[in-house]
Amino acid sequence: xxxxxxxxxxxxxxxxxxxxxxxxxxxxxxxxxxxxxxxxxxxxxxxxxxxxxxxxxxxxxxxxxxxxxxxxxxxxxxxxxxxxxxxxxxxxxxxxxxxxxxxxxxxxxxxxxxxxxxxxxxxxxxxxxxxxxxxxxxxxxxxxxxxxxxxxxxxxxxxxxxxxxxxxxxxxxxx
Length: 175
What we know:
Helix content is about 35%, strand content about 35%. By secondary structure, it is α+β, with helices and mostly antiparallel strands. The chain has helices spanning about 1-20, 25-40, 45-50, 65-80, 95-105; strands at about 55-60, 90, 110-120, 125-135, 140-155, 160-170. β4 (about 125-135) and β5 (about 140-155) form a beta hairpin.
């Protein structure tokens, strides 16, 4: 009987604690839309206004397929006595470099799309998770895609992005 009461209590507490995450999401959805829009329109001011003024953590993770292919190529090159750099599975970055790469004229990225946005927050901190895709050329060719997770803090000037991690898949991936 005690176990049943414990399970019911946990379930009730879980329902109550997650009930508040759906309310108040409008400002967080706006951050996602502004992030997408700032990159698409190459609006530097709008983009940098979205970020926390202190340190912002930024990490990317290449897909296992891409990493393994690059590692195999490098291993083969070294075995043949050719120079080869060791590929990285994860890579550090920052929001400044990311923006500069995304708007670089030689990259020709002209569309970025975010879908399946999921938000959890308690009013002070938030996790925003979504699928992304980056297109180039005529906007039909998908260059790379993945998932992105951003942590935000509610500052005196509103929600700000404090951390971002993302996976990277390319057309050669099986996904």
